[in-house]
């Protein structure tokens, strides 16, 4: 896959869309930058994009992909990669002795319960997989921050980026046996669900994700409902 690197742009997601409209001979590619001036997260939230962190978007052409499955599978892939890197390097980010990787539905990557990254899936003729990870620094609390944040100073940003790009196809292979992805996602998520801050309050207990990547919630009567996420 070709990599387009730009030092400063509005967002890797928008740049990837612009490049795909040029009908490049390269069907799949990545866009990476050092600074985003208009980075965004889920539901159009602003993504603070200071120098030193990881910002990239993969553009791929895939047919018959369920967006919710892809979002969950991307989170699991990132969590596994990050876990492996932290096991090699160690080094707490916030005074803690041990760093534990977690996931928050629908698209947040956690370390010790604090947000250190996120995924933004947008689908049209192409699939755009936007990834942002706090490596060198993290934003402080503010109007665009919906939960405590953390960063990962012991991680090499470029090594992390390269490993993500080299292993991105694992997501699509994993979709063929999504039950394994569902279990891995729950293994990363189950210890943190009580601390989640969702747009709509929970009215029961989170018990996992279903075959479409929707969040499963069980109420006091034992009834299970599924909550879906919105994709552009």
Q: Quote the beta fraction.
A: 25-35%
Q: How far apart lie the N and C ends? A: 24 Å
Give the count of structural domains. Answer: 1
| Major beta sheet summary | 7 strands, mixed
Alpha plus pi helix count = 5
Looking at the structure, the CATH topology is: BirA Bifunctional Protein, domain 2
Overall number of strands: 10
Shape: globular
CATH superfamily: Bira Bifunctional Protein, Domain 2
Task: Decide which structural class fits the backbone.
Answer: alpha+beta
CATH class: Alpha Beta
Secondary-structure element order, N to C = EHEEHEEEEHHHEEE
Give the name of the CATH architecture: 2-Layer Sandwich
Global mean pLDDT: 86
Spatial ordering of strands, largest sheet: 1-2-3-7-6-5-4
| Rg (C-alpha, Å) | 17 Å
Low-confidence stretches: none
Percent helix, as a range, is 25-40%
């Amino acid at each position: 896959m070709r990599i387009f690197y730009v030092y400063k742009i509005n967002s890797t997601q928008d740049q990837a869309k612009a490049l795909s409209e040029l009908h490049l001979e390269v069907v799949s590619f990545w866009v990476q930058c050092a600074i985003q001036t208009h980075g965004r997260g889920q539901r159009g939230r602003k993504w603070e994009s200071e120098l030193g962190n990881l910002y990239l978007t993969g553009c791929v052409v895939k047919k018959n992909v369920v967006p919710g499955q892809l979002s969950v599978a991307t989170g699991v892939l990132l969590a596994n990669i990050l876990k492996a890197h932290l096991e090699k390097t160690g080094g707490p980010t916030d005074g803690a002795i041990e760093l534990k990787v977690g996931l928050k539905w629908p698209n947040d990557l956690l370390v010790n319960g604090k947000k250190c990254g996120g995924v933004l899936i947008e689908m049209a003729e192409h699939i755009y997989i936007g990834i942002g990870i706090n490596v060198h620094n993290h934003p402080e609390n503010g109007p665009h921050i919906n939960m405590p944040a953390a960063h990962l100073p012991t991680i090499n940003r470029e090594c992390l980026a390269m490993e993500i790009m080299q292993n991105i196809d694992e997501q699509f292979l994993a979709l063929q046996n999504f039950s394994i992805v569902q279990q891995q996602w729950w293994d990363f998520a189950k210890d943190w669900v009580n601390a989640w801050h969702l747009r709509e309050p929970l009215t029961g207990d989170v018990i996992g994700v279903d075959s479409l990547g929707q969040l499963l919630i069980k109420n006091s009567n034992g009834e299970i409902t599924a909550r879906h996420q919105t994709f552009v």
